Every structure is written in C-alpha cells, then in structure tokens.
Histidine kinase (Candidatus Cryosericum hinesii), 98 residues
Amino acid sequence: MTELEEYQKARDRVQEVKGLYAHAVMFLVANAALAVLNLATLKKNDGVIWFIWPLIGWGVVLVVHAISVFGIGRFLGRGWEQRQIQRELDRRHSDPQA
C-alpha cells in the first residue's frame, strides 16, 4: 500500500468517526430540546411524557451507527481485552493496595 493510499484510508477513517461524533451531538441536542418541549407543555398534553419514544428510536439508530464505525470487535474484541488487562496491571503496579 502506498503512502497516499494509507493517508486516504486514515482520512476516511477519521471522517467516519467525525460523522459519528456529529450524529451523537445532534442526538443529544435534539433530544434535550424535545424533552424540554415535552416537559414545558406537560399540562397541555394531559401529563403524557412522549419524548422518550424518539429518544429510544434514535438511540437505537445511534448505537447501530457506532457499531458500524467501531464494530463489535473494537468494543469487546481481543485488542480491547488486552488493553483492559494491561490497564488493570498498570493500576495494580501503581497502587500496591489494589
């Protein structure tokens, strides 16, 4: 693989992660706004709390997006396990009481 190809792959990967982060920010902002709107008009809505439904639906979509970007293996795969073991060993070495 040439340097240019490696650079393009790295750039594409960064764009994927950036897209996920933008999606997560929009999720938080939009759902916060929906929650405020719902709670501000609660009496007019006969006390119905409806903002939870778009929160759940969009949350599922966001999780699927995250899995498509990072994949299951990146979350719980062998590399993740090795990093967690190393982190725990480092913690134990720095804190003898652990």
Observations:
- The mean pLDDT is 90.
- Residues 3-70 form one domain.
